[in-house]
Design brief:
Length: 486
């Protein structure tokens, strides 16, 4: 009898088996990040850098993986609708890790310049490595059906009729939860354009499309510590301290590594600039003003405010900033951001709704409240799938309480700058209106006089300001200026 060991691993005829290909490191890294986001509720921006390092990915490979992860997460609803149309079973019956890989494959086929054969074969290799041969054959069959149409063709097939159900169509076409589409449409209707003739429906399409674009990295030069001209990049449209980075790792910019500059969206810079720039009614004669950042984490606005406080010219009193953050780990981030800042009084770990200071202690108060974050969806690709309308039930009362305590903290003649990185009316106009209705010692100021260079930014209440990604290339920051009258 022939020795069976001599034929093991060989095909009939004596030929050795073809070695199975293994998935490439870029796609393995992308699947690892998607798994962490799904299983551990991880945030892409936090987990991706360590995964890239683990797989030794840099340069173009790192950029490919970043786009693969972020684009797949942003477009998840669209790809799920496409994949569902290519299945012989409900989408919910597909193994989670296989579905993650199919989404990666769909993104390459429909939204990236990856050849179809490469997108399919690499995804099949990925599924084979992660799950097994049977699942790999299934993935191959599904993706071959996906590549039969381009993205526009699939949207026409799987999305609701755009005439009968325009928001339902947008939810699939632009991959946003339906309730988010509804909320953003309501907010846009209360923030009409003044410089360009357009409809709310057209603007909504532009906004949703902007949410799916990878945002540019914006740096801020902290005044007195570095000049904007020292930073690489193109000057921002509105902030006198910002640049849009042309490319590369911002952590490798010397001024950023040294804490003299930071990564900060231009909209966030404008919030700090507005608070520092607004004129105050006369108050007690003091050598320096006291400023308060009531919800300071993770520290970007505090760092810019402290720098602005320390570099005021002789026409105004000097100023010092106290930063308050309830969560200890975020308070540590604030301390790191303020390291070396001359205008800081320090960082206090405390609950802003239970102040430890006497009423009227501050001249200017910034309160950038916890919110749904629906104005930063392009920057946080997974967040649109984690939020729900029920989140507002907990957030809105907290927002009202924080704004109320902020008004208490400021002296008569002082100001409060209320801001959110969400345009949702329940978090913006409704919160401000409710506090104004309950108090007779505060009025709404006009931010268009404070930031006249920012146009097409009328907010839902007179004098408020609403930024938009598709108009201003910033996150959708809302700002309201409240002036303490007595």
């Amino acid at each position: 009898m022939a020795d069976p060991r001599q034929s093991r691993g060989r095909r009939p005829g004596g030929r050795p088996p073809r070695a199975r290909k293994s998935a490439d490191p870029s796609r393995r890294a992308a699947l690892e990040v998607l798994t962490a986001v799904r299983v551990d509720d991880a945030y892409t921006n936090l987990v991706l850098p360590s995964v890239l390092r683990t797989h030794g990915l840099t340069g173009r490979d790192a950029a490919f993986t970043t786009e693969l992860v972020s684009g797949t997460l942003r477009r998840r609803a669209t790809y799920d609708a496409v994949i569902a149309a290519c299945l012989d079973r409900p989408l919910a019956k597909v193994q989670a890790k296989v579905l993650d890989a199919l989404r990666l494959g769909a993104h390459q086929l429909l939204s990236m310049r990856v050849p179809s054969h490469a997108a399919i074969s690499s995804t099949v290799d990925l599924v084979r490595d992660a799950v097994g041969q049977g699942a790999a054959g299934f993935a191959n069959a599904v993706l071959r059906r996906v590549c039969e149409e381009d993205l526009a063709g699939w949207v026409r097939r799987v999305a609701p009729d755009p005439v009968r159900d325009p928001h339902g169509f947008s939810a699939v076409a632009h991959s946003h939860p339906r309730w988010v589409v509804d909320a953003l449409g309501e907010a846009l209707a209360r923030s009409p354009r003044t410089e360009v003739a357009t409809t709310t429906a057209d603007e909504l399409q532009a906004l949703l499309a902007a949410d799916n674009e990878a945002p540019a990295v914006c740096l801020v030069a902290r005044p007195g510590r570095v000049d904007r001209a020292e930073l690489p990049g193109t000057p921002t449209l509105f902030s006198p301290y910002g640049v849009v980075l042309d490319g590369g790792d911002p952590g490798e910019v010397p001024a950023v590594a040294q804490g003299r500059a930071g990564v900060q969206d231009e909209g966030s810079q404008l919030v700090a600039l507005a608070l520092a720039r607004v004129g105050l009614e006369p108050g007690p004669e003091v050598a320096e003003e006291r400023w308060l950042d009531l919800c300071a984490g993770p520290g970007g606005k505090s760092a810019l405010l402290a720098a602005l406080a320390a570099t005021r010219d002789g026409s105004a009193p000097g100023a010092r900033l106290l930063s308050v953050e309830r969560q200890p780990h975020r308070a540590r981030l604030v301390r790191r951001a303020l390291d070396g800042a001359d205008g800081s009084l320090g960082v206090v770990t405390a609950d802003g709704t239970q102040p430890a200071w006497p009423a009227g202690s501050f001249d200017r108060v910034q309160v950038d409240v916890p919110c749904t974050g629906l104005g930063a969806l392009r920057r946080r690709p997974e967040s649109r799938w984690r939020r729900s309308p029920e989140d507002l039930e907990a957030l809105v009362p907290l927002q009202r309480a924080l704004l109320d305590r902020a008004v208490d903290a400021v002296r008569p003649g002082g100001v409060v700058l209320y801001s959110t990185c969400s345009p949702v009316l329940a978090e913006t106009a409704d919160v401000v209106s409710s506090v104004l209705a309950e108090r007779d010692d505060v009025r709404l100021g006009d931010l268009s006089l404070v930031l006249p260079e920012v146009t097409d930014a009328a907010g839902p209440l007179p004098g408020t300001m609403q930024l938009w990604p598709h108009r201003h290339r910033t996150d959708a920051m809302f700002m309201a200026l409240l002036e303490r009258t007595s």
